[in-house]
Amino acid sequence: MKLVNTIILTYTILLILSTPNFLSLKAQENGTGMATMPVQSSEGGFCKSMVETNGYECEDHSVTTKDGYILNVVRIPMGRCRDCRTRGNKSPVLLQHGVFVDGRSWLLLPPKQSLAFNLADNGYDVWLVNSRGTEYSEGHTSLNFDDPAYWNWSLDELVAYDLPATFQYVYDQTGQKLHFVGHSLGTLMVMAAMSRDQLVNMLESVALLCPVAYMGHTTSLLSRVIADNFIAEVTSFFLCYPN
Asked: Which positions make up the signal peptide (predicted)?
C-alpha cells in the first residue's frame, strides 16, 4: 500500500508541474500572432512583470484582513486601446484565482486571449486578487511567513476574512457593486460566502468557472484518493508550508 501511495503522490506532483500555471510564465504575442511564453521577470513585482509589459496601466493595492493577512490586489483600470484609455465610471470586476495558483493565472495567455486584459479593453475596471500565502501576499501584521502559526488557516478563513476584505476594499475604492469571476477554489469561496449572506449587497453579478461545491459526485477514483489522502502533502510541496 505504501508503494501505491508513493506512486499516486508522484503522479499528482508531475501532473501539477505539467500545467503552465506553475511555470511562472508570461504570455506575449510574437510577429505571427502566436503566443510565446518567456520566463516572467522577477523585477518590479506583479504590475511591472505581468501587466505593464503588455502595455496596460497597473496599480498595486494592499488589503489587510481582520486576522492580519496582507493581501496584494492588482488593478488594471483601463485597456490599452485608444478608445478605452479613459477611467470614467467603469464597472469593477474582481477575478479570484483557484488553488495552487495566484492572480497571474489570469494573464498567462496573450492579451487578446486573457480574460483580465479582454475585460479591461472592453471598458471594465479589473481587479486581480492574490490570496494569502501566495507569492505576492506573504505579509502579515504580526506573523512571519515561516511561522507555523502563519499557516494555521483553511477555506473557512478565506471565506470569512479574505473575500469580505477584498470585496469591501474594491467597493470602497469604486463606489460600485462588483462583478465577480471565480475559478475553481474561487467559486467555492464566493458560494460559501453567499450561503452566509455575506457580500450579497456588494455583488452585481457572479460568473463561476469550473465551480466546486462538493466532492461527493466525483467519479474519478484517482481524484478521490488524492483529495482524501494527499492534498496536504501536495500543498506542502508547492507552497513550502513549514513542518
From this structure: 1-18
CB 61 within 8 A of CB 76: no
76: cell is 488594471
Predicted pLDDT at 35: 43
pLDDT single digits (tens) 112-130: 899 999 999 999 999 999 9
pLDDT tens digits, one per residue of 158-181? 999 999 999 999 999 999 999 999
Q: How far apart are CA 194 and CA 180, in angstroms?
A: 12
Amino acid at 231: I
Say yes or no to pLDDT of 15 above 60. Answer: no
Provide the residue type at 175 as one letter. G
Please give the sequence-ordered ranges of beta strands (E in DSSP) within 57-211, or none if there are none: 59-64, 69-76, 92-96, 125-130, 139-140, 178-183, 203-209
9 grid coordinates: 503522490
Neighbours of 174 (CB within 10 A): 17
Residue whose C-alpha cell is 506573523: 143
CA distances from 240 to 2, 49, 223, 234, 236 (A): 23, 23, 22, 10, 5
64-79 tens-digit pLDDT: 999 999 999 999 999 9
**What does the alpha-carbon distance between residue 53 and residue 187 come to, in Å, rounded to a whole number?**
29
What's the CATH architecture for 45-212? 3-Layer(aba) Sandwich (3.40)
Q: How far is CA 222 from CA 152, 200, 213, in A?
A: 28, 36, 19
What residue spans in the chain does CATH classification 3.40.50.1820 cover?
A: 45-212
